[in-house]
Amino acid sequence: MASVQLSELVDFNQKSLLISAASIAFNPTFWNIVARQEYHNKVLTRLFGGKSQTACYFLAATIFSLGIVRDLLYERALRHQPIHPLLDTDEVTYFGYGLLALGNLLVISSTWQLGITGTFLGDYFGILMDDIVTGFPFNVTDAPMYYGSTMSFLGSALVYSRPAGILITGWVLFVYLIALRYENPFTAGIYAKRDAERAAGVKKDSKKKQ
Ligand SMILES: *[C@@H]1O[C@H](CO)[C@@H](O)[C@H](O)[C@H]1NC(C)=O
């Protein structure tokens, strides 16, 4: 059996591949920098005259648009890549569509549950959720946005029959796992602070009543 070189499956000379990889890494980097600036210095809220809700919607629209650009760059990168015959079958194509459907279901249901501000970093603007959301899709995964998006990347790779897409999906997962390690402790901290303040408030109230 002939050994297969990665360079036969993926055309690394295509600039579009690098551009796609860069845009995938750029997006979470961008929103984390902006969100932390908002949290510490209220940068966006000030820009919108103290209206944090409006500022958060603006960030949501920006992140959403960046996501569309990222998806277009990924599709373009795929079209520049070689097709592999093993991926060029009906079964693989259907499996790819299945992954796309499942990935989109996770992303859309998660947005449905969290709302716009809950999905797009509202916590950093001081717009906190009242309670932890535990219904679907949060009963199947703790990060439905990220895993759903990763599934969609893999689904497209299979629908397009491009091994390069599988490689990029690995990169997407890697970027998201780093983002989660960076974001989760910070958001947990925001809610821990709120809960501590709530508890202190309750104590004060009960003292008043005595
Ligand atoms: C998650 O919740 C949905 C809807 O409530 C339910 O149909 C599904 O069985 C649950 N899944 C798990 C793994 O609990």
TrEMBL record:
Its main location: endoplasmic reticulum. Pathway: Phospholipid metabolism; phosphatidylcholine biosynthesis; Lipid metabolism. Coiled coil: none annotated. Residues 15-35 dip into the membrane without crossing it. It catalyses: a 1,2-diacyl-sn-glycero-3-phospho-N-methylethanolamine + S-adenosyl-L-methionine = a 1,2-diacyl-sn-glycero-3-phospho-N,N-dimethylethanolamine + S-adenosyl-L-homocysteine + H(+); a 1,2-diacyl-sn-glycero-3-phospho-N,N-dimethylethanolamine + S-adenosyl-L-methionine = a 1,2-diacyl-sn-glycero-3-phosphocholine + S-adenosyl-L-homocysteine + H(+). Keywords: Endoplasmic reticulum, Lipid biosynthesis, Lipid metabolism, Membrane, Methyltransferase, Mitochondrion, Phospholipid biosynthesis, Phospholipid metabolism, S-adenosyl-L-methionine, Transferase, Transmembrane, Transmembrane helix. Residues 1-14, 36-47, 118-160 are lumenal. InterPro entries: PEMT/MFAP, Phopholipid_MeTrfase. It comes from the Eukaryota. S-adenosyl-L-methionine binds at residues 101-103, 183-184. The keyword Lipid biosynthesis applies. It is a multi-pass membrane protein. It is an enzyme of class 2 (transferase). It is found in: Endoplasmic reticulum membrane; Mitochondrion membrane. Pfam families: PEMT (PF04191). Its EC number is 2.1.1.71. The chain crosses the membrane at residues 16-34, 55-74, 94-114, 160-180. The keyword Phosphoprotein does not apply. Residues 70-96, 182-210 are cytoplasmic. Belongs to the class VI-like SAM-binding methyltransferase superfamily. PEMT/PEM2 methyltransferase family. Catalyzes the second two steps of the methylation pathway of phosphatidylcholine biosynthesis, the SAM-dependent methylation of phosphatidylmonomethylethanolamine (PMME) to phosphatidyldimethylethanolamine (PDME) and of PDME to phosphatidylcholine (PC). This is Phosphatidyl-N-methylethanolamine N-methyltransferase. It comes from Sporothrix stenoceras.
